[in-house]
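Preliminary data (for renewal application), adenosine-5'-diphosphate complex.
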Amino acid sequence: MTQSLRTAWFLLSRLMLVLAAGMLAGLMLGSLWVGVILSLGVALAWQLLNLFWLDEWLRHRNRHDPPDTPGLWGDVISQVVRLHRRKRYHKERLLQVLRELSQSTAALPDGVVVLNALDEITWFNQPAARLLGLRGRGDRGLRVSNLVRDPQFRDYLGRGEFAEPLVLRRTEPDVSLSFQIVPYSDGQRLLMVRDVSRQVQLETMRRDFVANASHELRSPLTVVTGHLELLLSDDALAEDVRSPLQEMQRQAYRMNGIVNDLLDLSRLDAQAREAASDEVDVVALCAILRKDVLARPGHPAVALSVETHARLLGDEPGILSAFSNLVDNAVKHTPESGVITLRWALLPDGAAQFSVADTGRGIAPEHLPRLAERFYRVDTGRSREAGGSGLGLAIVKNVLMHHGATIDVQSTPGAGSTFSCLFPARRVKIVAEERTDPPNE
Ligand code: ADP
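Predicted structure:
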């Protein structure tokens, strides 16, 4: 028999007993019904009394021991006591976990701010209070964009993609802070704040050093190349001297190229904000680049694939330098019998793509992820021979980054490569097509 059946049977037998006692008392008093009513009344009063004790104890259970009641009421009370104990145990554990969590986040060296769907601050730890000048509970509910008043920060908050942190320099106190958003459930977001002043300072020192060293190298190099040119212009120069002098001149030009590329990179590195938004006529630029290639001796064929007349909103000198770097590379690595195709096209989502495809020697897949690293060369000897500084693609990547653009490289060894620059829609301006017949060749 189960416990509940046993209890029901026990209750029923007790009720029968009380009823029988009542009937007996009723018979003795001369009325059976009076006895029945009396016994049922007593039974009901007993139940009500137990219910009252239970209610009293539940209201003040923290101060009183549970009532010592036999039978079903006793079972109910002991079950309530068990449930209550279990609840208290889980509450304690949860509180303990919360306490540990809050202690560990407070001990983090980085600031953590919890933002709700409206970007209002709902919680922050001690380092965040220190770094952002938050004062206490009073600052909860404050919009974070009212606290960090910087247009770049507002743009960053509105972005949907937070893989890269945003570094901002604050003047009072003079610190560089890195902000990174980590989205989690239901539109809630974590804002991680880190003091990166030291890293920024070291990076600035490195950049300044490279820029100064490159700048200092320029004058002696100009003197050397000038003298070499003068010496080589002498027709009476002995042949055994001419050859080493020509090699010296070649190397001096190469050094000049490296110094210029380093200076370009330093300038780009120092540029904190997004590039300007001049209207760049990419179609005209493609024509210039093509003409430039055709003017070189032993050049491959150049085809244009102009699919749009949309203008690119960007920094014209930077864009020209990036595109000509890609074209230069294609020329360097494509034989005379090959073809280079310059393509300018709109994509369905409003973005635009400039690509340089060649039918040259291609690049093995293991090199692709490292191509844009400074001084990374696939074939060092051949690249040096071709006069490459190893900085070209680093410059391209840097210019594109300042335009919010990315570079993609597809290549098949032996068949050729395609370098594509993908510009976001905000960098593209659609114009009424003046020419219905684009100069495709
Ligand atoms: P470099 O100035 O030496 O050309 P880059 O940064 O422009 O340096 O290019 C890095 C390396 O990528 C080059 O050394 C070259 O091996 C490879 N590379 C770049 N463009 C191409 C291309 N179109 N075809 C084959 N290899 C290329």
